[in-house]
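Box S2. Input/output pair 1.
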Amino acid sequence: MKSVVSLIAVLSLFVFLSPVFGASVDGSNTGKEATNSDYIAGEKAIKSKDWETAIEKLLRAVDSDPANANAQNYLGYAYRNLGQFNNALKHYNEALRLDPNHRGAHEYLGETYLKLDDIASAKKHLAALDKICASGCEEYDELKEEIEKYEKPKD
């Protein structure tokens, strides 16, 4: 019983301190991103669907923080929304190189593959999310739904 309590305490401490040390279990913002004005502006532009501004700001954020998987993921998202799929693939893959468990990058990369009629690759990212999200996650559910829509017979 004592070891279970210790394990819970350690895990709670990790969850509490992970933003402070820049760790991210789900591809969410880290403490370092909160101080990067270009990243913040890029994130704001993403929310406003201002893709060109998002790309401009996020490219600057990546220049100052090359290991920022979240900025790479957002760059992929902005490029995908502009229909620039090769650039989107490049940035999603870089996000996954930096953080192989980045849930958002797996979801969005899978959705990009659907736009490119590559269902097999989309399903590979769904399988990756299934492993990463052992108890379920929004990214898995959303990619699964998009795959089901894609596979549904067209009337």
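Box S3. Input/output pair 2.
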Amino acid sequence: MAKSKVQKKESLKEIADVLTSAQSVVFAGFNKLTVGETTEVRKTMRASGVKLLTVKKTLLARALTESPYGAGSSFSGQVALVYGSTADALAPARETFQAGKKYEGKLSILGGIFEGALADKEKMTSIAMIPSREVLLAQFVNLINSPIQRFVIALDVVAKTKSV
């Protein structure tokens, strides 16, 4: 069903708001995703503070042209915006990447906006592979703890040999 001019203006305003207010936005291509799969993807993304908004390519291109990011990109297939309302700027890319792995060939990263600049598919995919803050902190604590743990093990071995 065709949208009226009023509906298109509202959609354009919503897209422009997302592009300017979100910390990072992922342009996701989805093809042959069933309604059930789409609902499941939205549900898992919503649980981590990420939203998925399907958009018309022409409206997205127009919103990008009118935005501070400059010229719009041309996309093939259906396009959705994945953006987050959380403090984690990597969450939209990470969630899109995880959903893309789950529904192989049906959902993919096409590009995005990160740190106030347009990013291509490769950059957004590399951003998606960065672990979450909690995982990075756990790895750091493990790295700091490792020498201490080895020292304690060495002392224990020395204590066992001395007491015999």
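Caption for Box S3: The CA atoms of residues 39 and 49 lie 15 Å apart. The chain has a mean pLDDT of 88.
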